Amino acid sequence: MSDPTETNGTAGAETTGGAGERHVRVVLVDDHRMFRTGVQAEIGRTEETGVEVVGEAADVDQAVTVITTTRPEVVLLDVHLPGGGGVEVLRRCAPLMADAERPVRFLALSVSDAAEDVIGVIRGGARGYVTKTITGSDLIDSIFRVQEGDAVFSPRLAGFVLDAFASTDAPPVDEDLDRLTQREREVLRLIARGYAYKEIAKQLFISVKTVESHVSAVLRKLQLSNRHELTRWATARRLV
Asked: Do both 101 and 181 map to the same domain?
């Protein structure tokens, strides 16, 4: 699709046909065009999969517009988006999620497997959270499960949610971590895990120069000198 806010079909489309009786209308929300194109190619063969991609968006404002216009059954939502992130999309789409007749359900699909990201979108109303390492067939299955009202998580992420909602204590505020943007946190975690700049760039679909800029910003904000200190800092906070 040439326009990230492009939509297909109408908001009131019938949900029949394709892949037997299964059919679901989906909106893709991710700020990386290459990733959206890949997901579309993987899941959007409606006659085979039953998944109809009816729209795409690359930031928060586009996402709210497309979701409101198309009223899909399921939204695949990246956590880190320009304009306030996935949590902001969820906040602004709360009335659509609460619609008893035609609820719009959200499934987070992100490169991040950090507990705070998982818990944040689940508290915001998402029905599940899977990482971008998921296979195409598993993603399709997850979409249909969310459409039916199930909660879906990548295996190790479910524990974050259970721990968070079992505890009555609010997590402590980390003022240092709060200084970082969502993208800077992603880069920080990958640096702490030993990824090279080129590997980070490939995984996050950004340039090496952009990775370097994020690392410099993180070092400056945390008043650290090098990636070794970053790794120790992240490990001490269990961000790795």
From this structure: no
